[in-house]
Amino acid sequence: LGIAALSMGVPVMGFAYQGKFAGLWRHFELPQAYCLNPAQIETDELERQMQVFLAEMNGLKTAVANRLSHVEALAGLNFE
Q1: Alpha carbons 26 and 35: distance in angstroms, whole number
Q2: In whole angstroms, what is the distance from residue 45 CA to residue 27 CA?
Q3: Which of 13, 26, 38, 59 falls 20 to 30 Å from 19 in CA-CA distance?
Q4: Is the pTM of this model over 0.85?
Q5: Is-contact 61 11, C-beta < 8 A?
Q6: SS3 state of residue 54
């Protein structure tokens, strides 16, 4: 779902698993703070992070839009 959202220019916040999300965040140069570790986050911290994420949404949309063509080019290398 995160990949689909980002490919449409929609920023995401999610829980990391198997390093896959961390790599996705790096490709889009998104703050690692939005790549959450489910074993380390408490309810209050999750709520705070969500509020910050929503407050930064416009800037995050710009960041995703600026990196999208680069990430799509990288994805295209899988088919060569």
Answers
A1: 10
A2: 25
A3: 59
A4: no
A5: yes
A6: helix
